[in-house]
């Protein structure tokens, strides 16, 4: 049988079980209660969930992922350019990943897509917004590197 030698070990196990329960329920609570998830905190949580998705589903090492902040630091002190939410290196390709919860203006969206198209091998857009999906579908004919991944799939797998 399993025996615990200290109260600390019991508390540690309890906290770990609570973490696992919270971790499995939390993304769905966010989807349900965050009014479409259009605030920055929700967006940042979904970025973390997407990173977990790539690590688990594709075995990507964290060292093969660069955050938007790391990409901006590489840019230096010049004009601030668009960067994807993160870039992942896998299967010999660089992949820009964008979490898009609300639609941007069409010209701004195309500008971001174009920058990703010329800079990365592929671009994956993760969204649960039908307007964003429609915009991406419109641009997919011109920019062949676009892939759309439902946010719900990412949250299920993460």
Structure description:
Helix 5 links the parallel strand 4 (122-127) and strand 5 (146-150). The protein has helices spanning 7-33, 40-58, 68-75, 106-119, 130-140, 151-157; strands spanning 65-67, 86-90, 93-99, 122-127, 146-150. Helix 2 packs across helix 6. The chain has 158 residues and is α/β, with parallel strands linked by helices. The relative contact order is 0.13. It is built from six helices and five strands; from the N terminus they run H-H-E-H-E-E-H-E-H-E-H. The radius of gyration is 18 Å and the shape is globular. It has a five-stranded mixed sheet, with helices on both faces.
Task: Give unreliable regions as ranges.
Answer: 33-37
DSSP, total strands: 5
Task: Assign an overall shape.
Answer: globular
Strand portion: 15-25%
Strand order of the largest sheet: 1-2-3-4-5
Derived structural class = alpha/beta
SSE succession: HHEHEEHEHEH
Counted by DSSP, the helix tally is 6
Distance between the termini: 32 Å
- How would you characterize the largest beta sheet? 5 strands, mixed
Q: What is the radius of gyration computed over CA atoms, rounded to a whole number of angstroms?
A: 18 Å
Helix % is 40-55%
